[in-house]
Design a protein that fits this description.
CATH superfamily of the largest domain: Bira Bifunctional Protein, Domain 2
Structural class: alpha+beta
Mean pLDDT: 96
Number of helices: 14
Number of strands: 19
CATH architecture of the largest domain: 2-Layer Sandwich
Strand content: 25-35%
Radius of gyration: 26 Å
Shape: elongated
Bound molecules: 4-amino-1,4-dioxobutan-2-aminium adenosine-5'-monophosphate, magnesium ion
């Protein structure tokens, strides 16, 4: 018998097929049992009657626990009323393994309970939709860069230095001889790649020992980071905008069913496929915030509330550029017209989702960069290789990083980044 995935049933109407999956739910009218079977690609209603199944199998089917693994064979029928529009009239049912007292039932559960059972929670419909969209976003990131001739340039995870400041660095004992750190960003290595290949991107897990328990912070998250030689801030912003518009369009195109499960307002998402996105300077952002009654001063960091208030003015993501250099990492190039500003950009997602992208132009002058490393209290020795990039054929270059979980959370319209990754790592959570 031919084994078919539920998402492919449309091509098998009238045929006899086998589904291999798990029992999602069931109900019975007495005469007929309705078994909802899921196989990871979808859910299919399977109809079992005593005539088709035989008395013994029919009676057993009424006692199967939720998430029992099983295999069914039957004929595919189109049925508008059935979930997914198709139904299987089954003639055979084989149980692989039982599932007794499955802990996640269709009733409401609290987030702590579900996070403890994350290994099972990922079987639920909403989590399926979110994680499928994540998978689409990641595929779209790769396609976007490959279509444009970027080379994937993987960066190391164990590093001898910090990239984004030392306050949230995970430290590791490296063979009892020295310290190593979990990377906060692949950027510094991507810069070496850009000067070798012209345009590259790295894509991998990054780590921040964040002591903040907000809905936007994970301690381990995935970041995609392009880096381009001869790029300035303007071209970098253009790339970021093209990139995000592409990803959103791709999800709208291929994951509409999942967005529907999440009850996402897709009209709002459609707006993010329209370019250009507005660009405002940090100076202007501060003025806007003051106008809204925020007690902010020039030089202040923009927190979650400020970002939400700013993005409320726009229907698309907004690019905020040229922040005060003093609060930014050592590698950022300062604006020659206004040396107190960094040539950097943050992209803020609409609807209060805050920063999804951070990036900018890098300092490319050897002496200036060396001074910055010292001024930031960082040791020079481990940065010699990085300084080499300014010693041998330095060029202007720029890039950015997009946090996958932040982007996915916004696209899905869900509340917390913890649902946008299969196994979230947070200050208070290392399990399962
Ligand atoms: O703004 P960040 O810190 O920028 C960098 O790391 C640069 N080196 C990137 C580059 O230019 N190549 O981080 C970039 C993005 C943020 O905009 C956010 O989306 C995400 O990474 N991010 C986090 N996501 C989840 N949890 C956290 N703790 C995050 N910190 C940053
Ligand atoms: Mg940032």
């Amino acid at each position: 018998m031919s084994w078919v995935y539920i998402e492919d049933l449309g091509g098998h109407i009238g045929e006899e097929v086998t589904l291999k999956g798990w029992l999602y739910n069931r109900r019975s009218s007495g005469k007929v049992h309705f078994l909802l079977i899921r196989d990871g690609t979808g859910v299919c209603q399977c109809v079992a009657s005593v005539n088709d199944l035989g008395a013994e199998a029919f009676a057993a089917a009424d006692h199967l626990g939720q998430e029992t693994s099983l295999e069914v064979t039957g004929r595919v029928r189109e049925d508008k009323r059935a979930p997914g529009g198709r139904e299987l009239t089954i003639t055979r049912l084989d149980v692989h393994a039982p599932s007794i007292d499955y802990p996640i039932t269709p009733k409401e559960h609290g987030p702590a309970f579900l996070l403890d059972l994350r290994h099972l929670w990922v079987r639920s419909a909403r989590q399926h939709a979110i994680l499928r969209i994540r998978s689409e976003v990641e595929a779209a990131c790769r396609d976007f860069f490959h279509e444009r001739g970027f080379i994937l340039f993987d960066s190391p995870i164990l590093t001898p230095t910090s990239c984004e400041g030392t306050t949230n660095l995970f430290e590791i004992d490296y063979f009892g001889e020295r310290k190593a750190y979990l990377t906060q960003s692949g950027q510094l290595y991507a810069e070496a790649g850009a000067l070798a290949f012209g345009k590259v991107y790295c894509f991998g897990p990054t780590f921040r020992a964040e002591k903040s328990k907000t809905r936007r912070h994970l301690t381990e998250f995935w970041m995609v980071e392009p880096e381009v030689a001869y790029f300035t801030l303007d071209e970098d912003m253009q790339l970021a905008e093209d990139f995000v518009a592409y990803i959103v369009a791709r999800v709208l195109d291929r994951r509409r069913e999942d967005l529907k499960v999440l009850e996402r307002d897709t009209a709002k998402l459609e707006l993010a496929t329209r370019k250009p996105y507005p660009r405002i300077t940090y100076d202007e952002a501060i003025e806007r915030l003051k106008g809204k009654g925020f007690a902010v001063n020039w030089g202040d960091d923009l927190g979650a509330d400020e970002e939400t208030a700013l993005s409320a003015d726009f229907a698309t993501p907004v690019l905020v550029h040229r922040y005060p250099a003093a609060s930014k990492p050592f590698y950022m190039k300062h604006d020659p017209m206004r040396p107190d500003l960094a040539l950097c950009v943050d992209m803020l997602a609409p609807e209060g989702y805050g920063e999804i992208i951070g990036g900018g132009q890098r300092e490319d002058d050897y002496e200036t960069l060396k001074r910055r490393i010292v001024d930031h209290g960082l040791p020079l020795e481990p940065f010699q290789w990085y300084l080499d990039l300014r010693r041998y054929g330095s060029v202007p270059h720029a890039g950015f990083g997009m946090g996958i979980e932040r982007a996915v959370t916004w696209i899905c319209g869900t509340h917390h980044v913890r649902e946008a990754v299969p196994f979230p790592r947070m200050m208070e959570r290392l399990e399962p």
